Amino acid sequence: MEAYRQEIIVGAVVIYMLFCIVTGLWAMRRTHDSSDFFIAGRGLGPIVVALALFSSTLSGFGFVGGPGLVYSIGVSSFWMVVISSIGYAIGFFLVAKRIRMIAELRDCLSLPDVVAARYGSEAVRFLMAVTIVLGVMGYLATQILAMAVVMQAILSGTETFADIGLVSCVVISSTVLIFYCVTGGIIASVYTDVVQGAIMIVAGSLILMTAMSVFDGGIQEATSIILADDSEAIMPFGAAGVMASLGWFFVFGLGLAGQPHLITKMMMNKKMTDNRNILPMSLFGYVMAALLWISIGIIMRAAVIDGVVDPLALPDDAASTFLSVFANPLLAGIVFAGLFAAIMSTSDAFLNIGTAAIIHDIPKAIRGHSVKNELFWARVVTVLLATVAAGFALYSHFADATLVALLGAFGWGTFAASIFPVVAVGLNWRGASVAGAVTAISAALLINFSVQLAGIVLPYGISGPLVAFITSMVLFIGVSLVTKKPELAKDIDRVMQI
User: Rounded to whole angstroms, how far apart are CA atoms 393 and 147?
Assistant: First the structure.
């Protein structure tokens, strides 16, 4: 079996991609209008929503970047996992019930639809849509590049595709992504997320068992090796320090309730009572998948220190090196399929909400109505958006390495700072005003972009997104308090009282 390792890995990835194509064709028969394309007609069951929620959280960052962070800064990155788990509960408590109610009352197709209904303002809708489009470009570009790099690494290990280039890999991976997103919209997305979520859970569990067998003493021996080499790395806050680790509470804890690709899925369940089942299932799936992040990072750091494995050229090589050195070929195939699943589940979610912002929300904010024949234009813009993101990814790789980084500045941290106050707080505070929402979103975008563009390094490990989040919250609350108390529409006011 070891002799066919590369062929097994390639086969697993090919099977997964074929599944995505078949799912797109199946979902196309169930996609009749823009409501089906963007929010699955609000008719999904709890298991589907739960798996779609957590699989969209763990992208290529969780499967590649996560182990690399543990390898480089120790247990600091554990805080991301723990705090994100808390974030699920916060998100459901603050957002899930009211966003689903408003979506049904006003027939909302997107998050900007919901905030426009809540604040009675097209300005807030417009700023929310612009934030989503900017963030989506950064996420899509980095995810498409990640897919292509992984595919190139897999295919170049075979004789047939030994010389395959990165551009070819971008074309292949993007084509599969675009196909099932265009044909089936969010329906195809969430049902592929079901399989993606299952693969992640299985991969996380199997990787943990494999990691425990590398050293005779299991994970405990690995942590002892790291402790003897660098005690700070294995201490509660790791090498990143207290401020950085605690700062992640705002960005990854509270911020999870500000991620548009996640909270949009809270609008899709058939019954609001399903939330009591969706939350624990999502949380369970996330924790199981995150086992891969933690276990590979610890084992690879210990293995390098102990001389079992040569030092890594890059921390992000931790996962691929672990799979090639320690994992059974079948397990490696499952995990690589899981890696593609993780990347694609995030990519398709962002592609969908980005398309909604462009053809539904921005025109509605400017002209008072969205484009005609939304389903047709949704499919056209999906292709264009993915193509532009792929172009940015390639340009960044070959010509300007800062481009995707600049777009990526409007990623998780910007979504957290821009959306959490306006949505999570705004849906629970009747005094939140239009001026407060506009000020908060504008400040978050300005701070995150300025910090990234100017390359500002803040003291004590404080991150730009943390400054943006706190500033946005303070301005949102402060401006809302000093401006006139808003008069809510009757139906929205009743929702706010529930």
Answer: 11
User: Cβ(264)–Cβ(111) under 8 Å?
Assistant: yes
Q: Is the pLDDT assigned to residue 247 strictly greater than 90?
A: no
Using CA atoms, how far apart are residues 448 and 287, in angstroms rounded to an integer? 29
What is the tens place of the pLDDT at every residue in 441-494?
Answer: 999 999 888 877 677 777 766 777 888 899 999 999 999 999 988 889 999 999
The pLDDT tens digits of the residues spanning 83-118 come to 888 888 888 889 999 999 999 899 898 999 999 999
**Do 411 and 135 contact (CB within 8 A), yes or no?**
yes
The label of the residue with tokens 């084509």 reads 175
Model pLDDT for residues 37-72, shown as the tens digit of each residue: 887 777 788 888 888 888 877 766 677 778 888 888
Residue for token pair 């990347």 = 343
Where does the pLDDT of residue 209 fall: very low under 50, low under 70, confident under 90, or very high at 90 and above? very high
β-bridge partners, 44: 269
Count of C-beta atoms within a 10 Å radius of residue 280: 13
Alpha carbon distance 426, 431 (integer Å): 8
- Which residue has better confidence, 305 or 193? 305
Q: Phi then psi for 70, rounded to 5 degrees?
A: -60, -40
Domain 2-399 has CATH 1.20.1730.10: yes
Residue corresponding to tokens 């595919």: 151
Q: What six digits make up the tokens of 261?
A: 């690709």
114 closest CA partner among 97, 91, 89: 97
The angle subtended at Cα 143 by Cα 311 and Cα 39, nearest 5°, is 145
| The one-letter amino acid at 36 | D
Query: Cβ distance 183 to 36 under 8 Å?
Result: no
3-state secondary structure the chain: CHHHHHHHHHHHHHHHHHHHHHHHHHHHCCCCCHHHHHHHHHCECHHHHHHHHHHHHCCHHHHHHHHHHHHHHHHHHHHHHHHHHHHHHHHHHHHHHHHHHHHHHCCCCCHHHHHHHHHCCHHHHHHHHHHHHHHHHHHHHHHHHHHHHHHHHHHCCCCCCCCCCHHHHHHHHHHHHHHHHHHHHHHHHHHHHHHHHHHHHHHHHHHHHHHHCCCCCHHHHHHHHHHHHCHHHHCCCCCCCHHHHHHHHHHHHHHHHHCHHHHCHHHCECCHHHHHHHHHHHHHHHHHHHHHHHHHHHHHHHHHHCCCCCCCCCHHHHHHHHHHHCCCHHHHHHHHHHHHHHHHHHHHHHHHHHHHHHHHHHHHHHHCCCCCCHHHHHHHHHHHHHHHHHHHHHHHHHCCCHHHHHHHCCCHHHHHHHHHHHHHHCCCCCCCCHHHHHHHHHHHHHHHHHHHHHCCCCHHHCCHHHHHHHHHHHHHHHHHHHCCCCCCCHHHHHHHHC
User: Where are the domains positioned within the chain?
Assistant: 2-399
